[in-house]
Structure formats: structure tokens, C-alpha cells
Amino acid sequence: MAFAGLNDADVKAALDGCAAADSFDYKKFFKACGLAGKSADDVKKAFATIDQDNSGFIEEEELKLFLQNFSASARALTDKETKAFLAAGDSDGDGKIGVDEFAALVKA
Fold first, then answer.
1. What's the CA gap between 4 and 52, in Å, rounded?
2. Which of 61, 75, 4, 76 is CA-nearest to residue 34?
3. Is 4 a residue whose pLDDT tops 80?
4. Coiled-coil stretches, from where to where (predicted)?
5. DSSP string covering 19-56, please?
6. Domains of the chain: which residue ranges?
7. Binding site for Ca(2+): what residues are annotated?
């Protein structure tokens, strides 16, 4: 499945790079899968896919399943990874990640 115009091989490599529990690093993942180099529109499309309840925010439960948006067979993030990912992205402290916060994470 091409996700936001990403190359399947790059996505697989990015997922393989964080297959072990507690090995997820969002900066490495976004670079490896190619999302970091995509346009603002592509990043917004990726956000819309991850925001499964269409609330306009990515909440903790959606972050936990983040990798599964790229591949259904990918693992869920651990609680530790999820909380670290949320803390990195939640710049306004509201407990969720908005589209602008997500874009800043991707480009970090």
C-alpha cells in the first residue's frame, strides 16, 4: 500500500528498523520511510490517515497504532514509546497532536 506517496520498500525498511519493542524513534522513522522529504500536502494526508476518528487530532490511542497505518502487520507501539512520541509532538500541552504539531514532528 502506498502511504502518502511513499515507496513501499522505504516503508518496509523503516518498519524493519523499529520492529523490536522500545526501538521506535520517530525522527529515524520519518527519514527512513521518506515522509520527512514529502510536501506539506503529503504530510497532511498522512496526518488524516493516522487521525482515524477524524477529530483533527492524533490522540494517544491512535499513536499507539501509528505503525499499523503503514502496514497492517506492524506492531503496536509500547506505552513507553507512545508516551515519548506524544510528548515530542504535543507542543501546546493539550495531550494530543494537531496537524501543525505533526508536521513539525515529521520535519524535525
1. 15
2. 4
3. no
4. none
5. -STT---HHHHHHHHTGGGS-HHHHHHHHHHH-TT-SS
6. 8-107
7. 51, 53, 55, 57, 62, 90, 92, 94, 96, 101
Alpha carbons 100 and 84: distance in angstroms, whole number: 18
**What cell was used for 7?**
515507496
Residue 64 per-residue DSSP state: H
- Residue 106 has what DSSP assignment? H
Of 49, 69, 50, give the one whose Cα is nearest residue 59: 50
Closest by CA to 15, choosing from 29, 2, 5, 31, is: 29
Please give the grid coordinates belonging to residue 102.
505533526
pLDDT in tens, 53-100: 999 999 999 999 999 999 999 999 999 999 999 999 999 999 999 999
pTM exceeding 0.85: yes
Note the CATH number of domain 8-107: 1.10.238.10
